[in-house]
Amino acid sequence: MNASTARTTATDFTLQPDDVERLANLAGPFDAHLRQLELRLGVEIANRGQVFRVTGAPAATARTERLLRQLWEDAAVETLDEAVIHLRIAESGADQASPGYVPQDVSIRTKRGTVRGRGANQQKYLHAIATHDVNFGIGPAGTGKTFLGVASAVEALNEGRVHRLILVRPAVEAGEKLGFLPGDLTQKVDPYLRPLYDALYEMLGVEKVVKLLEKNVIEIAPLAYMRGRTLNDAFVILDEAQNTSIEQMKMFLTRIGHGSTAVVTGDMTQIDLPRHQKSGLKDALEVLRNIDGISFTFFESRDVVRHPLVARIVNAYDARDASDSETGPKG
Fold first, then answer.
1. Measured in whole angstroms, how far is the alpha carbon of residue 263 from the centre of its chain?
2. In 3-state terms, what secondary structure has residue 129?
3. Burial environment of residue 69 by CB neighbours within 10 A (0 to 12, 13 to 18, 19 or more)
4. For residue 224, which of 178, 268, 267 has the smallest C-alpha distance?
5. What is the pTM of this model?
6. Which segments of the chain have a pLDDT < 70?
7. Where are the alpha helices (DSSP H) in 205-279?
8. Nearest residue to 161 via CA among 125, 199, 200, 131
9. Can you tell me the distance from the alpha carbon of 287 to that of 290, in angstroms, rounded to the nearest whole number?
10. Closest residue by Cα to residue 89 from 151, 155, 133, 148
11. What Cα–Cα distance (Å) separates residue 95 from each residue in 21, 62, 98?
């Protein structure tokens, strides 16, 4: 919590009676449940045994104490997991942000080291992924949308919060046309999915990725092959979503099952669909913008973390497109 932005207070309390197993149930493996509460409620939670300290905005600390006391009661009679914690937070309304709420910093541990958001938008994006079941990251190339999504997915898998990673891209040629391409299924779709492989290799290393692919723990597939499935306990990423149809986007979003997180990334300036066909990503923005539980993070050229020229290139094309929309295209 940023003290310069919002007044903070510390609340101390003890959960009774003494019960080591109950405390472990409440905290979760490696304190995962407490970290989930911190991210969702915008507080910091520290404990020594059953003595807890909650630090944050006064209203947030009071809500967190009430919720922890309720979860302590629940921990005596049921096994708590991420889904139960999520449900209890939603039922309590404790994660409704107050005016002084500042999202907690989210850091991700992967093979390549610790990944953190660069700048406010990336930090907001990581926090949204940690606290929402469905997330949209929209903006130009080089802003880290896919990379941070894959990093979040890898961490969720490593910590046991999900059992599978499913990484999906729409192949514009998918469906009937895909059948006319040479080679087997893998050879046909690999060119469309290569950026997802590259991100995984960087996060996990090539050998581990190959092993997890063989075990079907990681699945990389074209969007057309998601139809008819229900994805439970999975982290699902739909990349290049601007090239989905409205029907494909609806199909993808309705695949999400219990214990799953979905991240949808896309760039509205890079639509490769036929001119008469509306992008499913654009349509989803219009239809779902005000739905609770869905987050939207919008990136701009200033968020580009590739070569500095990339931001200038994006700005130049944006300026040209804006001029064309006012005067009509030239030539």
1. 5
2. helix
3. middle
4. 178
5. 0.64
6. 1-6, 93-113, 172-192, 305-311, 325-331
7. 206-214, 246-253
8. 131
9. 8
10. 133
11. 27, 12, 9
